[in-house]
Amino acid sequence: MKENNMIETNDMVYGVHAVTESLRANTGNKLYIQEDLRGKNVDMIKDLARDKKVSISWAPKKTLSDMTEGAVHQGFVLRVSAFAYSELETLIVKAEKVENPLILILDGLTDPHNFGSILRTADATKVSGVIIPKHRAVGVTPVVAKTSTGAVEHVPIARVTNLSQALDKLKEAGFWIFGTDMDGTPVQKWNTSGKLALIIGSEGKGISTNIKKQVDEMITIPMGGHVQSLNAGVAAAVLMYEVFRHKL
After folding, report:
1. Which of 10, 42, 125, 139 is most deeply packed, by most CB within 10 A?
2. Does the residue 236 lie in any domain?
3. From the record, what ranges are coiled-coil (predicted)?
4. Are residues 92 and 73 in the same domain?
5. pTM of the predicted protein model
């Protein structure tokens, strides 16, 4: 049966990996599959949806493209429940149960592709959670979910009204707060033992001035080329892996 109903972009995910992980996490409500699509991905996702009792509709490719505003959907669009953010206190308590936990704080990140990429690396490096501000920053969107290739379903994300107060709570719990800056401790000399919280600044402005005042130590990534900075997603990945490799 063909289905031409449109759905809000904030209530869906698309692409093979994002749809698969959302179905596994039981957040899917209705699955749309491109009507002429065939292959193992179709069989796998269709079986998973049926197992999760998610209704399936077949739709033309153009309909799916309209639904995703021209994004690469790979023939799969899933209507999902509103993303369930973690409570900050819950995130901290769970992180404290991990040896040498790392919590990531994103200060004003606005690019959904960077956010999704960071979540993907966070999952790979066993980051305990991510904290984002509620205002003037990107939240979990379909683009974030797709770029994260499903990691959004596995990394706890807390969305807070006041980032400064969140840092105070982290300090009360015994976390050391680190930031990124051109003039800081070289990453290879970074002491990554203990409870760590790492702030990644926005793409254009970096870490906010008021947030910088709460940082215990700045970390810098040495570079030898002509470019003097990395984008937020790449810088975050380098630093997350630096912490992760000391746990191996």
Report:
1. 125
2. yes
3. none
4. no
5. 0.81
95: containing domain: 88-246
Residue in the block written with tokens 């401790």: 185
Q: Which two tokens stand for residue 74?
A: 């790979």
List, in sequence order, the alpha helices (H) in 88-162: 88-96, 112-124, 142-147
**Digits of tens for pLDDT over the chain (248 positions)?**
323 333 334 588 999 999 999 999 888 999 999 999 999 999 999 999 999 999 999 999 999 999 998 999 999 999 998 888 999 999 999 999 999 999 999 999 999 999 999 999 999 999 999 999 999 899 998 889 989 998 999 999 999 999 999 999 999 999 999 999 888 999 999 999 999 999 999 877 889 999 999 999 999 999 887 777 788 999 999 999 999 999 88
42 by Cβ neighbours in 10 Å (0-12 / 13-18 / 19+) ranks as middle
The encoded tokens of residue 6 equal: 């449109």
Question: d(Cα 31, Cα 102) in Å, to the nearest integer?
Answer: 35
Instruction: State how far the Cα of 143 lies from the Cα of 161, in Å rounded to an integer.
Output: 23
Q: Tokens for 69, please give them.
A: 């505003």
Instruction: Round to the nearest angstrom and report the end-to-end CA distance of the chain.
Output: 51
Q: Are residues 137 and 94 in the same domain?
A: yes
CATH number at residue 204: 3.40.1280.10
Residues 92, 167: Cα–Cα separation, whole Å: 11
